[in-house]
Amino acid sequence: MAERFDAALKRYGLSLFNPEWTAICRGIEKESLRVTPEGRISRRPHPAALGSALTSPHITTDFSEALLEFITPKHNSIDGCLGMLEDIHRFTYANLDQNEILWASSMPCPAGTEGEVPIAEYGSSNIGQLKRLYRVGLSWRYDSLMQAIAGLHYNFSMPEEFWQPYQLMTGFRGSLMDFRTESYLHLIRNFHRNSWLLLYLFGASPAAAASFVEGREHRLQRMPTGTMYLPNATCLRMGRLGYQSDAQKSLFVCYNDLPLYVQCLRDAIRTPYPPYEEIGLKVDGEYRQINVNLLQLENEFYSTIRPKRVARSGERPVDALVRDGIEYVELRLFDLNPFLPLGIDAEQVRFIDAFLLHCLLSESPRCNRAEFFEVADNILRVVEDGRDTSLMLRRGGKAVKLADWAGGFLADIRHSAALLDHFHGGGYLDSVERQEAKLRDPSRTPSARMLAEMERDGLSFCEFSMNISKKHAAAFQSAPLADEVRERMEQTAAESIQRQREVEADDEIGFDEFLRNWNA
Fold it and tell me: Which residues of 125-135 are buried (b: 16+ CB within 10 A; e: fewer)?
């Protein structure tokens, strides 16, 4: 282990790596659909016992009233982070109505006979109405069922103790805030160009219900059960059927420096887009979207990773970044792994941390327009055909075999894993080796395992997902929360409801004026 540690220091040009630097801060945001016992998207309102979706720190909703979002606080401990996520699941199951369960897969179940996905509600406050209007706008701009896709977001930051010594080691001349921001942009560029690998390794959406593709152009094939799929797909959620937007295809977002990134998004928020102008801003007295521009909000830009800072109340995300720089990064490309009750496990977390540390410490060339769109094309290839062992990607304009590129990159990540293992006693190199096994044998990937199980047992995607969702539900319900944890979460829920009332009482202007001010 000592030899590997020394080799890692040499690889990254480091004179030392302190133990406190390995106290990585992580947080998880996991989405899950509430579904009926019949396997349909629930149309019931957000359970009141879970608290306010507007103000709860741990349980909110995403696009739909039925699409729950579980949020852990940041943790230096992997077990602490996953333990909190498990507590949220157990608390939720104790308070779900009508025998509802949480859908284990990222791709949604059918919407039901009404064919509608209920849009999330956030109360009567101006900020609550804005959150709902944003989602109404999404329903007009994109397919609502597509917005019901569930994902898992991973928040990552290095500990405070890391930054000043690392700045001295690199010789960066400037403020600590600027150095941290530049370093995270450095990480983002490396992540962006290599993110396709994570889709191969952890993608778990190779198939979808037939109703999901009705009326949409696609190249999916039909299984005997009626399920739509691609034989070598990994993560359809991140492809043409998921988080893709024709309006954003030409949008080049540059990660070379923060002002450029912010300007790219601000321009998109201010630029009218003819198809959205046709939808209209307010029709027959009802708002249809926040504005008629390319983006309603920064969050509408679908990226695999975002630079983030906790914003103040009412503050735009890009304004928070301008104020104090990048605080952490948010990864947005992970499917829920249906074979895992939490959708993720400690092995995957360790690999993600090693992957991101490697992106931070290794060389990071500046991005350009050609590479930006080359990355987008690589992602699409891996999404649809990633487990084709002959698949070729593009790197710097040249064709390269996925297996060769992935093999070299995984071998390099062993260096960052060695740094972490040196102080944690193991686990990180093991996680890299598990991913190398998936590269040698694609049948080990979650996407391949899903298709194999469906084919073996003659199951449709919905039958497979329902069966495994019920198993997870039974496991969570059989292990109730400790009394003190339950009481704390009940108190948090009650406080969030009171906080929503206070937010609603604090409004001093009407929503029309609030929206005009927001857009200005």
Answer: bbbbbbbbbbb
**What's the order of all strands across the beta sheet hosting 207-208?**
207-208, 228-229, 221-222
Which tokens hold the place of 81?
A: 């982070």
Give residue 7's Cα distance to chain centre: 33
Mean of all residue pLDDT scores within the chain? 95
Q: Is 32 helix (H, G, I), strand (E, B) or coil?
A: strand
Collect all residues with Cβ–Cβ distance below 8 Å to 456 and sequence separation of at least 6: none
Whether the model pTM is above 0.85: yes
Scored b (16 or more CB within 10 A) or e, 246-278 reads ebbeebebbbbebeebbebbbebbeeebeebee
Instruction: Return the HEC string of 405-427.
Output: HHHHHHHHHHHHHHHHHHHHCCC
pLDDT digits (tens, 9 = 90+) for 327-357: 999 999 999 999 999 999 999 999 999 999 9
- Hey, CA dihedral for 468, 462, 66, 289, is it positive or negative? positive
Let me know: does 225 contact 462? Beta carbons within 8 Å: no
The DSSP-derived string for 219-230 is: --EE-TTS-EE-
Collapsing DSSP to helix, strand or coil, 17 comes out as coil
Contact 125, 85 (CB under 8 A): no
Q: What stretch of H or E contains 306?
A: strand 305-308
H, E, C per residue of 130-158:
HHHHHHHHHHHHCCHHHHCCCCEEEEEEC
